[in-house]
Design brief:
Length: 215
């Protein structure tokens, strides 16, 4: 029986234990605090995480980085082993999926801008459904008459779809290859480069505190 050549350091073992015990993904700052490590050791701890990630790459569980946070996840090819028979939650409607895609690629965007891109009206109920999933969030208010709310995706969106960054969303060629876009598109057709910065843009105003809980 061949022994495992990887020998974890004391810090790697601590990281491994912390991530196994965690009920949600942990970011680097949280891990540093748990280890009582200083900011000066950020690079070293990042290296330890990458070493553990490589070690677990072919295991039944993988160490993954999603939305800038680290977590252990069942290997994709083994996920079917852990499926539970339960009531399947309601699927998102076509309108909700289209709205979510527009928000993801065009954020920050307003309801009117979503309607302009879709070419049809977007009901408040559609946005409410997406809010319930936790995949979108109100960012601020556009500096135009009426001060409409601007929408963006959340860390929960990245976590659910397994993205470390919003920039990992598929680009034009990937969307064509998957059949999600018609191959006969206009020559000048482009897929926006998605941005999800938490900072408000120059044309956005902050939400009032009392509004953040529900819009």
């Amino acid at each position: 029986m061949t022994s495992d050549p990887f020998v974890a350091s004391a810090r790697q073992r601590k990281l491994e234990a912390l991530l196994f015990a965690a009920t949600e993904p942990l970011d680097l700052r949280t891990l540093l605090n748990c280890l009582e490590e200083s900011e000066e050791n950020t690079e070293a701890v990042s290296g330890d995480l990458e070493a553990l990630q490589a070690q677990y790459r072919e295991r039944g569980v993988n160490l993954v980085k999603v939305a800038g946070k680290w977590a252990f996840r069942t290997a994709v090819d083994l996920a079917s082993l852990l499926e539970r028979h339960k009531v399947v939650p309601r699927k998102l409607s076509r309108a909700a999926l289209e709205t979510l895609a527009i928000i993801a690629y065009h954020q920050p965007t307003t309801r009117a801008e979503i309607e302009e891109i879709r070419g049809v009206a977007t009901s408040k109920g559609t946005l409410d459904v997406l809010l319930e999933t936790g995949w979108i969030r109100p960012r601020g208010r556009r500096m135009v008459p009426g001060r409409p709310v601007t929408w963006g995706t959340s860390d929960a969106f990245l976590n659910h779809f397994g993205f470390d960054s919003i920039r990992e969303l598929p680009g034009l060629e990937e969307l064509k290859a998957s059949g999600l876009l018609d191959s006969n598109l206009p020559v000048d057709f482009k897929v926006p480069v998605p941005q999800d910065s938490k900072e408000l843009r120059q044309d956005e105003l902050p939400l009032d505190t009392e509004e953040e809980g529900g819009i």
